[in-house]
Amino acid sequence: MDRTPEWNQATYQVLVQVENNITLEGNLSLPENPRGVVLFVHGSGSSRHSPRNQFVAQVLHEAGFATLLIDLLTMQEEEQDRYTGHFRFDIELLSRRVVGATDWLTANPTTAHLKIGYFGASTGAAAALVAAAERPMVVGAVVSRGGRPDLAGSYLTAVQAPTLLLVGSKDTQVIELNRRAFSLLRCEKQIEIIPGASHLFEEPGTLEKVAQLASQWFTRYLAA
For every one of its 224 residues, what pLDDT tens digit does the chain have, with 9 covering 90 and above? Predict the structure, then answer.
């Protein structure tokens, strides 16, 4: 692992082997004595370099959490997806990659003892919820930012991890989709509508609110 200086803590570039010998690139950041580890599951056309996810990750670091930001697609798949949009809606494939990354965290000596949380965005939120249903013993909490949890389908009723759904008040169509998914969840759950926020939470103060709520949720369920 190659160390890179970010946020005054140990940050490593890692290679994560998942299904069918696929290798994914990620950034694993470790504060001293982490309280848990949060795996970021990005959505449509995004990557581990997403400024929004990096901002939320920094807030989580300040709260004492390790983070793993990972590219769920290979470079070739990302190139193809840029033109077709096919992979970003392949929830089955994405969730398998998330499960693979989860298994990597449970096998890695530096994170094996930590409870795992998922921070999902857009279609990545659905993949996170499917993976949470597949790995109920190790996933302790899920947060969705502007997500499409409805795309998790029948897996929603099997999710055991406490789940927080965050949606912008201007993102009216996604609010309705989140409410439908919320009604199907059987776990401890909460939905928060962020005032003045659109789908990407670009308005001043809205992403800060997301990060604050996510930090509180993970502190409550991962750090206990």
Answer: 333 444 457 888 999 988 878 899 899 999 999 999 999 998 655 567 678 889 999 999 999 999 999 988 877 877 776 766 667 678 999 999 999 999 999 999 999 999 999 999 989 999 999 999 999 999 999 999 999 999 999 999 999 999 999 999 999 999 999 999 999 999 999 999 999 999 989 999 999 999 999 999 999 999 86
Which CATH number does the domain housing residue 148 bear?
Answer: 3.40.50.1820
DSSP collapsed to 3 states, the chain: CEEEEECCEEEEEEEEECHHHCEEEEEEEECCCCCCEEEEECCCCCCCCCHHHHHHHHHHHHCCCEEEEECCCCHHHHHHHHHHCCHHHCHHHHHHHHHHHHHHHHHCCCCCCCCEEEEEECHHHHHHHHHHHHCCCCEEEEEEECCCHHHHHHHHHHCCCCEEEEEECCCHHHHHHHHHHHHHCCCCEEEEEECCCCCCCCCCCHHHHHHHHHHHHHHHHCCC
Domain span at 172: 2-221
pTM of this structure = 0.92
Domain count, the chain: 1
